[in-house]
Specification:
Blueprint (H helix, E strand, L loop, with lengths): L3 E7 L6 E4 L5 E7 L4 E6 L1 H4 L10 E5 L8 E4 L5 E2 L13 E5 L5 E7 L2 E6 L4 E7 L8 E6 L6 H17 L2
Antiparallel strand pairs: 1-2, 1-12, 2-3, 3-4, 4-5, 5-6, 6-7, 8-9, 9-10, 10-11, 11-12
Protein name: DUF6593 domain-containing protein
InterPro entries: DUF6593 (IPR046528)
Pfam families: DUF6593
Length: about 170
Amino acid sequence: MSASYVLFQYSADPWNARFEDSERRRAFTVEEDPNLIMRITREAPWAQLHTEVMGPSNSYLYFGPTRSPGYLVYGNSPHQSMSSARRQKRENSTSRYFVAQNGKEYKWKIAPQGLECIDSKGSTVAIWETSQLQDEFHARLTVRLSALAIITEIVTTLTLNRIASILNW
């Protein structure tokens, strides 16, 4: 992917992980509290290095009982159901769609070893791939520079899709 940026994910646990850049600066922290609320924090020192980064600095995933689908919130925006943030257009499709705060639709193509985020024009804007055994990180998230404006939404929906896959939603 040309003109892109790479974040490394440490921890295979989608409920508690961190994403760092190649200089080991923390970009995102993903944490779950005992009340089944996850906070995904875009770290300010990292974001300030990238003028392309826009949107909310935090998102929250509120799960229902026994980690059933609940809703998500970007910053102070209105909440939306987790189901709407990972819509399925065809019954047997592995793709999941979401609408970013900029009003544009994106889809995650889900595969066993990774996920690919594609915009409405068919261009890949992000790829998440699990690492090799010799790597010190769990996965690599490659994001086009043009998609840094929605990086919080990308990390949030990536995390949501990984959790949904694990919990068989």
